[in-house]
Amino acid sequence: MWIFGYGSLTWKVDFPYQQRVVGYIKGYARRFWQPGRVVTLVPSKDPEEKVWGVAYKISEEKQEEVMAHLDHREKDGYQRTPVTFFPQEAALKPWELIIYLGSETNPFYTGPAKEDEIAQIIASAAGPSGSNKEYLFQLAQTMRSLNINDNHLYSIENKVKSIIENINQKT
Ligand code: BEZ
Question: Average pLDDT over the chain, rounded to whole?
Answer without folding.
Answer: 89
